[in-house]
Specification:
By secondary structure, the protein is α+β, with helices and mostly antiparallel strands. Helices cover 27% and strands 29% of the residues. The strands form five sheets. Strands 15, 16, 17, 19, 20, 21, 22 and 23 form an eight-stranded mixed sheet that branches. The chain is globular and about 100 Å long. It binds zinc ion.
Amino acid sequence: MNKNNARIWLFCQSLLFGRRQCARVQAGTSEPIHITPTATSGVHVADRVPAFSSSSRVWNQAKSYRTASLLCIVIAAATALAQSNGQPASPQTLTTTLLRLNKQYQSAPAATKTQLLLQMEAIAVQRQQLLLQLMKSDPGQVLRYAVPGNVRADFPTQVEGAIEATQQATGVLQVLMEDRSDGARLHYGLKTASERLSLHFARIAPTNLLTGSRVRVQGVRVGNSLALDCCNSTTTTSSLQILSTVLPNTFRGQHTLVLLVNFQNNTSQPYTATFAANETFSKNSQFYEEMSYGQTWFTGNVAGWYKLPINSTCNLSTIASYANQAASKAGFSLSNYQRFVYAFPSIGCGWWGTAYIGGTQAFVSGSYRLAVLSHELGHLLGLYHSHALNCQPKVDTGTCSSIEYGDTLDMMGNPSDFEGGHFNAFQKERLGWLNYGSSPPILTVQSNGSYTIGPYEAQNGIAKALKIFRSKNSSTGQITWYYVEYRKAMGFDSFLSNYSEITNGVVLHLGTSSTPNSSDLLDLRPSTTSWMDVALDVGQSFKDPNTGTIIKVSGVTSSGATVQVTLGSGGN
Ligand SMILES: [Zn+2]
């Protein structure tokens, strides 16, 4: 509707004759041009103005000739734009028109504002529908013609809602492969706490991401779709940041076969098959059920004892091979099991247990206890050890050394009591048992404030840890985080009842994204040699010397710990 163009006068014959047809008469011409509203324009307007949608009864409800006339104008305006010169409307044309109308509207006298507003609404809705179509076919065009936020804010409220906006969202990625007769098609979605958004990549969709990855996206939103300025096949941009990816096969029942074997030169059976079954599928399974907040457990069978036709050896593949033969011969179908534990008397190999990280086979030599079993099974699920960072004179600066099994609170380290020790939040996040899917969340601190976390061991959906920026590797882009947990003497952490210093404060770990072997317990009381007094206690604060970020414990109760975080200059 440019003043410089020939003016178009619109009126609706159907107002007079009860027909759903509009006529357009161009100034200076005598011939009315009859237009039947197209499906596109008709649907749009009908959606927004229900009274226009159906019967003559509804028509009769039109309060005045003028009101109905304006409705007709809306249809005709949209139709005219859509079909000028026989070409479908382009995002460029519609965007330009919308901006021009808004400019007119801002300076228009009150008498014409209503008409302009209706025209803008119609154009905005038509444009929105076009952008939604482009989302699927060419999301780059959506980004190209997206109206900047400050320009959007200049539109009347009634129009603003139909104009796209930049949005950031965090959630769990969903990657759906559609196997079609005309070829495969990938669909990407983001499940946030409140809704599901479909994601559309302006460049190349990443193919290295799996369903379940926790991501943060920023893009242009139209309806429930987001257009992202992203990616190539393996790397992402600021439009798509991977917050965490989790290890595979860490949920639900882990079907396991325990094979009890001895040797021609060592035929001792230091425990019974019943004991091994109880330790593995009762105690150990309960341990994992608690670690995973009810999401992972162990099922299976015990085979043996079998005397292998060899003398004792520390060659793992030899033991596994003969043990598998013996179990198969006894009727076990090995293909039914996901994990295998080979257990035998102590044969002096220099280790109690050993396992393939992220693999299927673990080995236990000698005493068969939760402490060794749950630790080795943690390796099979993909975990490395939980270390401690021993620094002098400060908590995590100065001269530091890593202690391999140094985490005194974690079964993947060296817990002070071998009957328990929850995996720390960095480890659980890798497994997907925190901050993923329906697992309890970790609160990632992005602004100054007071944050509350629940007892770490409690089996509920309350946030179990804080994640606070510590540093970023300039070459790899990987971020090292502080993880803050509130540990209580509960369940498999009951041994903490002897260590009130731990339970009266919060414990801090370091962990680096995409770096599996980077879990470090920090000693917040480096002046002592003990590793059972490492907590940051109520009233105490810790200042990160690199970023200046301050972590302070405001208070603890039986239901949670409140932590004040003041981000420093290096914070994200
Ligand atoms: Zn180990």
